[in-house]
Amino acid sequence: xxxxxxxxxxxxxxxxxxxxxxxxxxxxxxxxxxxxxxxxxxxxxxxxxxxxxxxxxxxxxxxxxxxxxxxxxxxxxxxxxxxxxxxxxxxxxxxxxxxxxxxxxxxxxxxxxxxxxxxxxxxxxxxxxxxxxxxxxxx
Length: 139
Prior knowledge:
Layout: E1 14-18, H1 22-32, E2 37-41, H2 44-53, E3 58-62, E4 64-65, E5 68-69, H3 70-81, E6 84-89, H4 96-102, E7 104-109, H5 114-126
Parallel strand pairs: 1-2, 1-3, 3-6, 6-7
Antiparallel strand pairs: 4-5
């Protein structure tokens, strides 16, 4: 009679949360951390470094970052790993095609509601992950 197999805990989605506004970043981390594994970054450079250490399943990124913009960040992360993203911005999205091409599958306008963000995360999980593009770099 063999020993019962130990059940692996279910995979918690790893979310890379990028926002230069510390209060917003901290609040979103607190709200989401009971459901997801959250890795935070305050700028484009730290987000790229965090994604290098541990590839996220989904990216939530502010568009206005101190050292670049969230569209460039998402474009690079999507190119590297095929990850889907959710843009968070205080401004209207004027070029939805550019956002989609960068890898954003949804965008939310600040102030966001937790229910909206959770719905967007659910939808992002259903997006097929695209294969990374090897040998090309936008940085």
